[in-house]
From TrEMBL:
This is Acetoin utilization protein AcuC. Pfam families: Hist_deacetyl (PF00850). Residues 22-315 form the Histone deacetylase domain. It comes from Saccharopolyspora flava. GO terms for biological process: acetoin catabolic process; epigenetic regulation of gene expression. The lineage of its organism: Bacteria, Bacillati, Actinomycetota, Actinomycetes, Pseudonocardiales.
Length: 391
């Protein structure tokens, strides 16, 4: 049995900075670690310093041509292509080094689990799930999620489940393993007709020998706590029970929150806290307790991400924070100095009740229809009955 949690962190990961007013600002990571420390979540936890992913590590997922373009981009952005030099993915100094460090941090977290040093590990700077083999996409240069999964497969791990709760579809990870039966990718996200990247339909289920290894649950705009959690529980436990992964990898993007400026789902931080507790239970029930947690999206930099991911860290450590916990005044003062006219939260709750009713099999709403469609698309491929609503 490993230790409780390995936290991979160093302030050097803040150098992954797309600049200016880009939505993916590293301040959200700094504020998360400050809040977790202020609340005592990380008391007694010695963080592990990441190391950059090697060229061999990155080549398991990315092409040599793309990596050469990333290295060259700061000097010749107008020539390199590969999705670089755009508004979403602007180039910046030492971009390869900063991106390789994020990927290396996720590998370092995976190492703790594979070696037996820890049962759970986290890299909140990770979760860059949109990067493709040969191009950058959606603020993501190297796909650390896929790089870490590919590294674990190389070490002999035979079954890995990747579960993505970011508001955007986990398209880069799905693409990397779409025909690999050793990896199950599961994504709950806003419906692709209404949100970038336009993928993640329920009918995307894997290919060839990997039919049934991709699970997509696209949800309509406006989906709130109860409906989102009903969809989660109507699909995810059943497919994990069938697949029985040896490691559960989760991308924990916080941008499904109702305050996020880049999307249209309506979760509260209370539902996000409850979801992290669900992830912990799923890892214990179906993956032998082996849980690799990564960050992801989240663009309400001050009000949402630090609270959500502090709850995530607390959940990983079995130090769950009561929702009504007051945020320390020192943290609020620091955040106010960094923000421009952003009202700061004063507690770790949005004052919401995240309870839900389990799916009954009746399609009474658009979310129920999404549940039905997801189950009908993938359950038969896994030997499951899509009409059985007991889960």
């Amino acid at each position: 049995m490993g230790s409780q949690l390995a936290v991979v962190w160093d302030e050097s990961v803040l150098e992954y900075d797309l600049g200016g007013h880009h939505p993916l600002h590293p301040i959200r990571l700094d504020l998360t670690m400050r809040l977790a420390n202020a609340l005592g979540v990380l008391d007694g936890v010695e963080t592990i310093k990441p190391e950059p992913a090697t060229e061999q590590d990155l080549l398991r997922v990315h092409t040599a041509e793309y990596m050469a373009a990333v290295r060259a981009a700061p000097l010749s952005a107008w020539e390199v292509g590969h999705g670089l030099g755009t508004d979403d993915n602007p180039v910046f100094d030492r971009m390869h080094e900063a991106s390789a460090l994020i990927a290396g941090a996720s590998i370092k977290a995976a190492e703790q689990i594979v070696s037996g040093a820890a049962d759970r590990a986290v890299n909140i700077a990770g979760g860059l799930h949109h990067a493709m083999a040969d191009h950058a996409a959606g603020f993501c240069v190297y796909n650390d999620c896929s790089v870490a999964i590919a590294w674990m497969l190389e070490q002999g791990v035979e079954r890995i489940a990747y579960l993505d709760v970011d508001v955007h579809h986990g398209d880069g990870v799905q693409a990397a393993f779409y025909d690999d039966p050793r990896v199950m990718t599961i994504s709950l996200h806003q419906h692709p007709v209404t949100l970038w990247p336009g993928t993640g339909f329920a009918t995307e289920v894997g290919r060839g020998n990997a039919d049934g290894s991709a699970v997509n649950i696209p949800l309509p705009p406006g989906t709130g706590d109860a409906d989102w959690r009903r969809a989660f529980h109507a699909v995810v436990p059943s497919v994990l029970d069938q697949f029985r992964p040896q490691v559960l990898v989760t991308q924990c993007g916080a941008d499904a929150h109702r305050d996020d400026p880049l999307a249209d789902l309506a979760l509260t931080v209370d539902a996000q806290r409850a979801t992290y507790q669900d992830l912990r239970e799923l890892a214990e029930s179906y993956a032998g307790g082996k849980w690799l947690a990564l960050g992801g999206g989240g663009y309400s930099l001050f009000r949402v991400v630090p609270r959500a991911w502090t709850h995530l860290l607390a959940t990983l450590l079995n130090r769950d924070i009561a929702p009504e916990t007051t945020i320390p005044e020192d943290w609020i003062a620091h955040a106010v100095r960094r923000a421009q006219n952003v009202p700061m939260p004063t507690s770790m709750s949005d004052g919401a009740d995240p309870s839900f009713e389990r799916w009954s099999g009746v399609t009474a709403s658009a979310v129920d229809t999404a549940i039905r469609d997801a189950r009908h698309a993938v359950f038969p491929l896994l030997g499951l009955d899509p009409a059985d609503s007991r889960d």
